[in-house]
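We modelled the chain as a single entity of 97 amino acids. Its sequence is:
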Amino acid sequence: EAEAKRELERITSVTELPAGYANFDQWLSGTQLERELKIQEYSVSNRGLRPNLVGTPEQLKERVAEYEAAGLDLLLLQMSPQAEEMERFAAQVMGTT
């Protein structure tokens, strides 16, 4: 879990404003959204952290089971490096190889 949290912190920490952030900031200031967007929302494409799939394999199994219980039957994942992390997810979280 500590490793997963360190990686989450790494990808959601912005020490220098990246190219494109000004567009996000401008959009955010002009929007009428009822909730405040966080830099975490901006850090990962397509709001990739909203499903909260960060943690140990056991924690991820529980989270996936919660989605299944709610009726979800398709899970789209983006990982880096893609091939290696998909294999790891399949083996450690889904129990397949």
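As a brief sanity check on the tokenised model: The mean pLDDT is 78. The CA atoms of residues 24 and 42 lie 8 Å apart.
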